[in-house]
Amino acid sequence: xxxxxxxxxxxxxxxxxxxxxxxxxxxxxxxxxxxxxxxxxxxxxxxxxxxxxxxxxxxxxxxxxxxxxxxxxxxxxxxxxxxxxxxxxxxxxxxxxxxxxxxxxxxxxxxxxxxxxxxxxx
Length: 122
Fold this sequence. Notes:
- This protein has strands spanning 2-6, 9-12, 17-24, 32-38, 45-51, 57-59, 67-72, 77-82, 91-98, 109-112, 116-121.
- The protein is mainly beta.
- β4 and β5 form a beta hairpin.
- The protein starts with a strand and ends with a strand.
């Protein structure tokens, strides 16, 4: 499985960005895809995830109501729509694929894409 994340950039607080994660390879061998982020000097943290079985979305409390995860099966792509961005959302965002027992756990994901940087200015 290969993952390619894109869509990061610089945006003002209150603005929006949409991240994309294009997957290729044996993606059907995994049952979920997630987004994580890592800010400078901090550990990588869970942002959102979606399970293939029923498209169930999961969100970190810090992004609920502002971020939306979705997927396009035809394009084998998962999106993260980020609205009402805050400076504290500034981080490198990573997409990941796996079959995690708990979607919030980084060690539940086998494949990781290169990150895309999101910078939110105040």
